[in-house]
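Subject: two folds for Thursday's group meeting

Dear M.,

Sorry for the delay on this. The cluster queue was jammed most of the week, so I only got both jobs back this morning. I'm pasting them in the order they finished. Each block is the input sequence followed by the predicted C-alpha coordinates. Could you check whether the formatting survives your parser before we put anything on slides? The first protein is the one we discussed after the seminar.
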Amino acid sequence: MNSRINLDEILGQLPQWNLVLSIGGVDYPIRELRIGDLQKLQPDSLGKGSEMADFIGSLFEGKRPDVNEWSLDMLGIVVGRIGAYVQERSKLSSQIASRSPSPKHEAPN
Protein backbone atom coordinates (compact mmCIF):
# COMPACT_ATOMS: atom_id res chain seq x y z
CA MET A 1 0.00 0.00 0.00
CA ASN A 2 1.36 3.44 -0.96
CA SER A 3 0.53 6.69 0.86
CA ARG A 4 0.49 10.10 -0.75
CA ILE A 5 0.70 13.40 1.12
CA ASN A 6 0.10 16.53 -0.93
CA LEU A 7 2.75 18.94 0.42
CA ASP A 8 1.76 21.65 -2.05
CA GLU A 9 -1.70 21.68 -0.53
CA ILE A 10 -0.37 21.83 3.03
CA LEU A 11 2.27 24.49 2.25
CA GLY A 12 -0.38 26.55 0.46
CA GLN A 13 -2.17 26.95 3.79
CA LEU A 14 0.81 28.64 5.44
CA PRO A 15 0.91 32.42 5.52
CA GLN A 16 3.62 33.92 3.33
CA TRP A 17 7.06 34.37 4.90
CA ASN A 18 7.21 37.97 6.12
CA LEU A 19 10.13 38.87 8.37
CA VAL A 20 11.47 42.42 8.20
CA LEU A 21 14.23 43.89 10.34
CA SER A 22 13.87 47.64 10.91
CA ILE A 23 17.01 49.58 11.81
CA GLY A 24 16.98 53.35 12.13
CA GLY A 25 13.63 53.54 10.35
CA VAL A 26 14.87 51.53 7.35
CA ASP A 27 13.24 48.16 6.62
CA TYR A 28 15.37 45.21 5.58
CA PRO A 29 13.37 42.14 4.49
CA ILE A 30 14.87 38.81 5.47
CA ARG A 31 14.54 36.11 2.83
CA GLU A 32 12.89 32.78 3.54
CA LEU A 33 15.44 30.55 5.24
CA ARG A 34 16.56 27.09 4.15
CA ILE A 35 17.75 24.14 6.22
CA GLY A 36 21.40 25.07 5.64
CA ASP A 37 20.72 28.59 6.94
CA LEU A 38 19.19 27.22 10.12
CA GLN A 39 22.23 25.02 10.70
CA LYS A 40 24.54 28.00 10.25
CA LEU A 41 22.50 30.08 12.71
CA GLN A 42 23.42 27.72 15.54
CA PRO A 43 25.82 29.43 17.97
CA ASP A 44 28.59 26.90 17.35
CA SER A 45 28.28 27.30 13.57
CA LEU A 46 28.12 31.09 13.16
CA GLY A 47 31.82 31.42 12.43
CA LYS A 48 33.94 34.43 13.21
CA GLY A 49 34.46 37.94 11.89
CA SER A 50 33.86 38.52 8.20
CA GLU A 51 32.59 34.96 7.64
CA MET A 52 29.81 35.56 10.17
CA ALA A 53 29.06 39.03 8.77
CA ASP A 54 28.88 37.66 5.21
CA PHE A 55 26.47 34.92 6.27
CA ILE A 56 24.20 37.26 8.26
CA GLY A 57 24.26 39.72 5.35
CA SER A 58 23.21 36.95 2.96
CA LEU A 59 19.95 36.52 4.89
CA PHE A 60 18.62 39.85 3.61
CA GLU A 61 16.75 40.41 0.36
CA GLY A 62 17.91 43.36 -1.68
CA LYS A 63 19.33 46.17 0.43
CA ARG A 64 21.45 44.91 3.34
CA PRO A 65 22.38 46.62 6.59
CA ASP A 66 26.08 47.02 7.35
CA VAL A 67 26.34 44.05 9.71
CA ASN A 68 30.06 44.71 10.22
CA GLU A 69 29.04 47.75 12.28
CA TRP A 70 26.72 45.81 14.60
CA SER A 71 27.54 45.25 18.25
CA LEU A 72 27.54 41.71 19.65
CA ASP A 73 24.32 42.59 21.49
CA MET A 74 22.65 43.60 18.24
CA LEU A 75 23.81 40.41 16.54
CA GLY A 76 22.42 38.34 19.41
CA ILE A 77 19.06 40.11 19.23
CA VAL A 78 18.81 39.65 15.46
CA VAL A 79 19.76 35.96 15.55
CA GLY A 80 17.36 35.42 18.47
CA ARG A 81 14.44 37.09 16.69
CA ILE A 82 15.08 35.16 13.48
CA GLY A 83 15.15 31.95 15.52
CA ALA A 84 11.91 32.87 17.30
CA TYR A 85 10.18 33.63 13.99
CA VAL A 86 11.31 30.31 12.52
CA GLN A 87 10.12 28.51 15.65
CA GLU A 88 6.69 30.20 15.44
CA ARG A 89 6.35 29.20 11.77
CA SER A 90 7.45 25.66 12.52
CA LYS A 91 4.78 25.36 15.21
CA LEU A 92 2.15 26.77 12.82
CA SER A 93 3.18 24.42 10.01
CA SER A 94 2.91 21.45 12.38
CA GLN A 95 -0.59 22.55 13.40
CA ILE A 96 -1.65 22.94 9.78
CA ALA A 97 -0.17 19.55 8.84
CA SER A 98 -1.98 17.83 11.71
CA ARG A 99 -5.32 19.30 10.54
CA SER A 100 -4.74 18.20 6.94
CA PRO A 101 -6.48 15.11 5.64
CA SER A 102 -4.83 11.79 6.34
CA PRO A 103 -2.54 10.43 3.62
CA LYS A 104 -4.36 8.89 0.71
CA HIS A 105 -3.68 5.19 0.43
CA GLU A 106 -3.24 3.86 -3.07
CA ALA A 107 -3.02 0.36 -4.34
CA PRO A 108 0.44 -0.54 -5.69
CA ASN A 109 0.86 -0.43 -9.46
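Second protein, same layout:
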Amino acid sequence: MAETTELVRTDAELVAETAARLDRLVERLEDEAFATALANNPKETMMAAGLTLDHEGLEAYIRTDPERFETVTDALFQRVDSDFLMAMSVPSCC
Protein backbone atom coordinates (compact mmCIF):
# COMPACT_ATOMS: atom_id res chain seq x y z
CA MET A 1 0.00 0.00 0.00
CA ALA A 2 1.45 3.34 -1.02
CA GLU A 3 1.79 6.04 1.56
CA THR A 4 0.95 9.64 0.79
CA THR A 5 2.54 12.54 2.54
CA GLU A 6 0.59 15.73 2.86
CA LEU A 7 2.50 18.96 3.28
CA VAL A 8 0.81 21.44 5.55
CA ARG A 9 2.22 24.92 5.56
CA THR A 10 1.73 27.03 8.64
CA ASP A 11 0.60 30.65 8.47
CA ALA A 12 4.15 31.68 9.37
CA GLU A 13 5.55 29.74 6.40
CA LEU A 14 2.88 31.12 4.06
CA VAL A 15 3.57 34.67 5.20
CA ALA A 16 7.33 34.26 4.86
CA GLU A 17 7.02 32.82 1.34
CA THR A 18 4.51 35.44 0.20
CA ALA A 19 6.44 38.33 1.73
CA ALA A 20 9.66 37.18 0.09
CA ARG A 21 7.98 36.82 -3.30
CA LEU A 22 6.37 40.26 -3.14
CA ASP A 23 9.66 41.82 -2.04
CA ARG A 24 11.47 40.11 -4.93
CA LEU A 25 8.77 41.21 -7.37
CA VAL A 26 9.21 44.85 -6.36
CA GLU A 27 13.00 44.50 -6.69
CA ARG A 28 12.74 42.76 -10.07
CA LEU A 29 10.60 45.59 -11.44
CA GLU A 30 13.77 47.72 -11.42
CA ASP A 31 15.03 45.49 -14.26
CA GLU A 32 13.64 46.99 -17.48
CA ALA A 33 13.69 43.67 -19.38
CA PHE A 34 11.76 41.95 -16.59
CA ALA A 35 9.26 44.82 -16.34
CA THR A 36 8.66 44.68 -20.10
CA ALA A 37 8.20 40.91 -20.05
CA LEU A 38 5.84 41.27 -17.10
CA ALA A 39 3.78 43.91 -18.91
CA ASN A 40 3.51 41.73 -22.01
CA ASN A 41 2.97 38.35 -20.38
CA PRO A 42 2.44 38.73 -16.62
CA LYS A 43 1.42 35.27 -15.49
CA GLU A 44 4.04 33.42 -17.50
CA THR A 45 6.76 35.88 -16.49
CA MET A 46 5.91 35.56 -12.80
CA MET A 47 5.81 31.76 -13.05
CA ALA A 48 9.18 31.67 -14.83
CA ALA A 49 10.68 33.94 -12.17
CA GLY A 50 9.28 31.84 -9.32
CA LEU A 51 7.16 34.73 -8.13
CA THR A 52 3.69 33.22 -8.25
CA LEU A 53 1.36 34.23 -5.45
CA ASP A 54 -1.50 32.22 -4.03
CA HIS A 55 -4.70 33.39 -2.43
CA GLU A 56 -4.05 31.51 0.81
CA GLY A 57 -0.61 33.08 1.24
CA LEU A 58 -1.86 36.59 0.53
CA GLU A 59 -4.69 36.20 3.03
CA ALA A 60 -2.31 34.94 5.70
CA TYR A 61 0.07 37.84 4.99
CA ILE A 62 -2.71 40.43 5.24
CA ARG A 63 -4.03 38.87 8.44
CA THR A 64 -0.62 38.44 10.08
CA ASP A 65 1.29 41.59 9.12
CA PRO A 66 -1.06 44.16 7.55
CA GLU A 67 1.36 47.08 7.89
CA ARG A 68 4.17 45.27 6.07
CA PHE A 69 1.71 44.07 3.42
CA GLU A 70 0.51 47.63 2.87
CA THR A 71 4.08 48.90 2.55
CA VAL A 72 5.08 46.32 -0.07
CA THR A 73 1.86 46.68 -2.04
CA ASP A 74 2.24 50.47 -2.06
CA ALA A 75 5.71 49.99 -3.54
CA LEU A 76 4.31 47.53 -6.08
CA PHE A 77 1.45 49.81 -7.11
CA GLN A 78 3.90 52.66 -7.69
CA ARG A 79 5.69 50.48 -10.26
CA VAL A 80 2.82 48.86 -12.18
CA ASP A 81 -0.28 50.17 -13.88
CA SER A 82 -3.90 49.10 -13.60
CA ASP A 83 -3.70 46.99 -16.79
CA PHE A 84 -1.09 44.79 -15.13
CA LEU A 85 -3.22 44.39 -12.02
CA MET A 86 -6.23 43.43 -14.14
CA ALA A 87 -4.18 40.89 -16.10
CA MET A 88 -3.06 39.30 -12.84
CA SER A 89 -6.62 38.99 -11.57
CA VAL A 90 -8.14 37.41 -14.70
CA PRO A 91 -8.37 33.62 -14.49
CA SER A 92 -5.96 31.86 -16.85
CA CYS A 93 -8.84 30.02 -18.54
CA CYS A 94 -10.31 33.24 -19.95
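Two things I noticed about the second structure. The chain has a mean pLDDT of 83. Helices lie at 11-28, 32-40, 42-48, 55-64, 66-79, 82-89.

Cheers,
T.
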